[in-house]
Amino acid sequence: MRLMIVDDSNMIRSRISRVVQAGGLANVSLVGLARNGAEALRIARATQPDVVTMDLTMPEMDGIECITRLLQMLPKTSILVVSALSDKSTAIQALRLGARGFVAKPFSDDELKLALLDVMEGK
Question: What are phi and psi of 72, to 5 degrees?
Answer without folding.
Answer: -65, -40
